[in-house]
Amino acid sequence: MTPFSVRSPRVVAARKLQRRRARDQAGLFLVEGPQAVREAGGHVVELFGTAEALEAHRDVVRAAGTAPRYTVTDAALESLAETVRPQGLVAVCRALDVTVKEALARRPRLAAVLCEIRDPGNAGTVLRTADAAGAGAVVFAGDAVDPYNGKAVRASAGSLFHVDVVRDPDPLAVVSAFRDTGYTVLAADGYGPVALPDAPLAGPTVWLFGSEAHGLPPELGSAADHRVRVPLYGRAESLNLAAAAAVCLYASATEQRSRREVL
Amino acid sequence: MTPFSVRSPRVVAARKLQRRRARDQAGLFLVEGPQAVREAGGHVVELFGTAEALEAHRDVVRAAGTAPRYTVTDAALESLAETVRPQGLVAVCRALDVTVKEALARRPRLAAVLCEIRDPGNAGTVLRTADAAGAGAVVFAGDAVDPYNGKAVRASAGSLFHVDVVRDPDPLAVVSAFRDTGYTVLAADGYGPVALPDAPLAGPTVWLFGSEAHGLPPELGSAADHRVRVPLYGRAESLNLAAAAAVCLYASATEQRSRREVL
User: Which ipTM did the prediction report?
Assistant: First the structure.
């Protein structure tokens, strides 16, 4: 069979998913590269690959299950990919976000809310770090970046498929839902009155993170139980978002585990 | 006086510093934006600004001391800057790195060695995080990115001027120098046998970080007292470099401080 070209209708349709509006309408998004496609597994609904890549990554093709697979030309593959080296595979995946209620029903010990974070690289990195720290849910709240944005997907390094991802336009409603379920709500805030080593970290905790440019909206700081700062021991004026989130989330993870061992 | 244009010899000479070779030859580098120029302070040897910016940021001009300042056209300023919004100021600064010996003479309790890290954004971010965690020295070791690369300078957010920055082509010699001075040498390694919470963190410590792409060269892992992994509590396969460095450096900072309070 002739490989699909850049202008084949299926390729054209998939390529449209590079735009947010098309993703939202279809409830679909793109992932690229063998590693990410392997992680996507059962979420794959269509797999595009060069003949060479489909042959080289049979395990990945198997992980995509019964999803139809299409052999495409190098040019068609490149047109679907957003990176310089897509390594021959791009998959269309089903959106996998759940509601806050669904995420809370699984009672994660640790969760993170990204409030109005616009930078896809930052958002994806924090998602990856939250997963590493054992968080069970990550909420993209307010006017935040689309978690299915190509750059966010790549920065998440597969973690998009590991944790419950929630999209919710109303950060305050998200905070209320966590609070009503018994969570300690901690707002990461460089100027917060509580230093991280003094924060109550042992119980079920949700962290709120704002954008590096604008910080956390004041009403969200007020809605938290504590506004917590990562101490600055040197002369840096602040930490970047990804570093601050890593320090906060790992402080929680470590404390939660040391307490559980004692109990 | 007419503002200097894009082709004025001083502007041309300064603009050459966007290239590493010119920086190395001259022992000079560029910083841009009022915040960074303020931090640079006494390291500034020439200050370029639009008439508007020089007027608006008089405190920054003062911080640059006796360094000559030149009014330039908008186009000349843009040609010197690497960002889209340089905010009207670019300074030529004197290289400020010191030798390992000089850095060790100040006995920092905490230090970081970036081994063969090529990505300027990553390197600058780790420098900023190390400063925030109270590290006194950061070594760019081996075939690492130039700390005076524009993107590294910007990612460091001023921390380049806060800590002792060392450039050394020989990472093993750097490790030996720290070890001979009594430091615990910890290699950050996702597959290390020691989990971070079990690592000895209380004493004077130097952390070794490798690139995200290639990790730490094996001979450096072997040269360390311990190879330490940040535990992965969820399903993420790894942390990115900046997040791992933040978690490791803050674990040290926190432990060193809690011990000192006890003693």
Answer: 0.92
